[in-house]
């Protein structure tokens, strides 16, 4: 502390040529700190901060192809884009679809990952190792690659899933196109998303569960609690902070799913497959309505923010009451 | 213990539970890994076993012909080269910037330090899809669209926060006394850093660089939007366009997918631990 206040005073007092090299060697810690973060601050301000501001600005302008190529300033239209979106019934459909899709993905991910974490805890060492290796392999798969693989698994003509389901008595899956029906199509996409999301959640939950003292569960068992009661009354309350984290992260990720839908539909998602991320993108780059796309993106971020704040406050409050 | 009448029913339970858990574990493992297995199997299958109405679940005649078709498809070399250039540029720049910032956070006290840490953690939560439109317009106005450098710039934004946070932990783990001792022995601050801190945070540098490599190797939308020339495509963009351009040559497609995914799986296995803790650390603070 005192060094940092001395250094500038010295520098101000000793102007003569002598102390120049010495002063460089004795930079105040504060100054070194600022110098070290400078490059990062410049990059993040340029590629994160400025675009965020620009996104908000864009959403109250009307930027089209013409302004983009002529370089003319885009006209300011206030909340016009928002009025346009909010009066569009299709937008509400997209929001509803996105919420339902996210809820299904997050619920499935959490339930399956919890089951996996419990299985990992109860299983033998070799089995736990096997599961860990499998989970890491799945986790590492690039989204684009896994979507292409699932498209091959669910291929209408030579897909292994159609063959497998077709083995059931009385089911004819010859040439069955899973994407022809929106529900089954979203079922496949949900499977891709959940499959990719399980490893992180399961490994994180397992790390948490293995911290829960076995004595607690044994004590509950001695007191006559069954497996379900032990999980919901003993394990889950201890793990609640971890559940809050993985739930918030899963919602943030699943609410803006893009790659899986985009690649599964071959880069041309039909209107009934559009969820918010895809919708905003198609609006901006498909029909060059950049401002409308920006307004949709802003609405997406605001929705996510509202959810995150609400959910975290809620779970904090629950924690206090308990 | 064993003489009690209540023990027999209690004792077998953990054993029976363990066997049941093992069975479930094996079944789940097989189900979960199947898509990966199917990808690799398809990539090595000979042509007459590929498109059959009754699938072959293993092959006795593995072949590399699918790989050679993928490699000789137009622009594979370009895509591979571009991906390597982008991934390594992002990695090196991110590594240098993140190390500097991590040292600043872990070793120095300055005004605004807490705000900086907070910003780093919050920035991780900003959805990439929300930033595509302004990023595209911004890079367009400074003539960086359709250039690999523009893509590297955007990837930095998404790799830096995680890298800084992870490296911070490693730098903070090196006792400051070690550095001070070196400086007492006559090292300058820089020498102490290079001789003492740098070797000790090496595992952290490996973890962060692999993370940056994987992220920029896998990324799809930004590359798709920013790089319009076919010669400028990265591997994921090439792979997706391969489907539409060649109908459904699943053999070659899965060979391409295997080539893209394999290095990622190997590298990811090395750093998996840090990714899990890094992601949740961000959430706790944010």
Automatic annotation (TrEMBL), chain A:
SUPFAM superfamilies: MetI-like
Membrane topology value: Multi-pass membrane protein
Signal peptide: none
Localization per Swiss-Prot or TrEMBL: Cell membrane
Keyword field: Cell membrane, Membrane, Transmembrane, Transmembrane helix, Transport
Transmembrane segments annotated in the record for this chain: 32-53, 91-117, 129-154, 183-209, 230-253, 290-312
Biological process according to GO: transmembrane transport
Pfam families in the record: BPD_transp_1 (PF00528)
Biased composition (Low complexity): 1-15
ABC transmembrane type-1 domain residues: 95-311
Gene Ontology CC terms: plasma membrane
InterPro entries for this protein: MetI-like, MetI-like_sf, UgpAE/MalFG_permease
CDD domains given in the database record: TM_PBP2
Spans annotated as Disordered: 1-23
PANTHER family listed in its UniProt record: BLL4140 PROTEIN, DIACETYLCHITOBIOSE UPTAKE SYSTEM PERMEASE PROTEIN DASB
Protein family membership: Belongs to the binding-protein-dependent transport system permease family.
UniProt name for this protein: Sugar ABC transporter permease
UniProt source species: Actinocatenispora comari
TrEMBL record, chain B:
Domain of life where this protein originates: Bacteria
SUPFAM superfamilies given in the database record: MetI-like (SSF161098)
Matches recorded under InterPro entries: BP-dep_ABC_trans_perm (IPR050901), MetI-like (IPR000515), MetI-like_sf (IPR035906)
Domain ABC transmembrane type-1, first and last residues per copy: 80-271
Pfam family, one: BPD_transp_1
Gene Ontology BP term (one): transmembrane transport
Localization: Cell membrane
GO cellular component: plasma membrane
Keywords carried by this UniProt record: Cell membrane, Membrane, Transmembrane, Transmembrane helix, Transport
Ranges that cross the membrane: 20-40, 84-108, 115-139, 151-171, 192-214, 250-271
Membrane association type: Multi-pass membrane protein
Record family assignment: Belongs to the binding-protein-dependent transport system permease family.
Protein name: Sugar ABC transporter permease
